[in-house]
Amino acid sequence: MQVYVLVWIGLLCIVGAEVLLAYAHLRTGVLLAGLLALALVEAGAGLLFFMHLKYERAKLAWWLIPVLLFVFLLMDHLWPDAFRLAALRGP
Amino acid sequence: MAESVLTAHPAGEESPFGIQSKKLAIWLFIAADSATFGAILFAYGFLRVGAADWTRPFAFFPSILNGIVMTVVLLTSSLTMLAAVAAAQRGDTAKTVRWMGITALLGATFAALHLREWFNMFHEGWSPSKNPLGGSAQFGATFFGVTGLHLLHVTCGVLAILVIALLVRRGKLTAGHVETTGLYWHFVDLVWMFVFPLVYLMNAR
């Protein structure tokens, strides 16, 4: 349980960092990148330790995660249209 | 683990991932559900980037502070779920049931905080199709859509934990069932790790 408590404390610290980042008056794109990076670190820690992926056969992670990343990659096809809409409204 | 693998495959064929069938099933569900949450978060991003007058309605008090408390409650519930799994693996039924009860209580607290926030927003004139601040009405649609889907998962999780705890107490289920339930609960927690920054912090005033 000691490892889990340490991970839990680490996750709470990351949440604190996210809140500080939100009030650091950053540009929207920079804020989004920072928050996403921190959320990915949290998700990684949760997957590895809380969900025990670290202790399972590596094959399980290799089978699940690349497929999921591919799905998210396919979803990225919508961004050009979102930016087109943003450009239409002008500066 | 060897016993469970044999149970899952009576013909003696080993599971390709060395885990029980129910655990593999919950991993498959988690992968599929991740895509669902991914899709709804991408839709939120699309609408946000494309909207001319996106609203940032969340003041630090009460909305962001409420979100922080909800996040701490949910993260803590993951820790108590891990304690339940550890107790189940030791064969300590009383502690397993107790930790699962605490986890369900924390989950219910999260849901209650969430609903309180929703009702406050309804009272201010927000709805999935209305924005009382005059900006894009799509904010309400995406906010209630994303958080509503997550709240549905939390509610199902709390009910599942209570049912599994009851059956563990009666001796009808094993540590494997508790672990599988825990995987679902941690997944719900992980999804919130994306919802809180993207939906709350990105819309903080």
Structure description:
- The complex is a heterodimer of chains A (91) and B (205).
- With 91 residues, chain A is an all-alpha fold.
- In chain A, 79% of the residues lie in helices and 0% in strands.
- Chain A has 4 helices and no strands.
- The longest helix of chain A has 23 residues, at 28-50.
- The N and C termini of chain A lie far apart (53 Å).
- Chain B is built from 6 helices and no strands.
- The longest helix of chain B is centred in the C-terminal third of the chain and has 32 residues, at 138-169.
- With 205 residues, chain B is mostly helical.
- Chains A and B meet through α1, α2, α3 and α4 of A and α2, α3 and α6 of B.
Put the structure in a nutshell.
The complex is a heterodimer of chains A (91) and B (205). Chain A is an all-alpha fold and 91 residues long.
List the main descriptive attributes of the protein structure presented here.
heterodimer, A: 91 residues, mainly alpha, 4 helices, 0% strand, flat, B: 205 residues, elongated
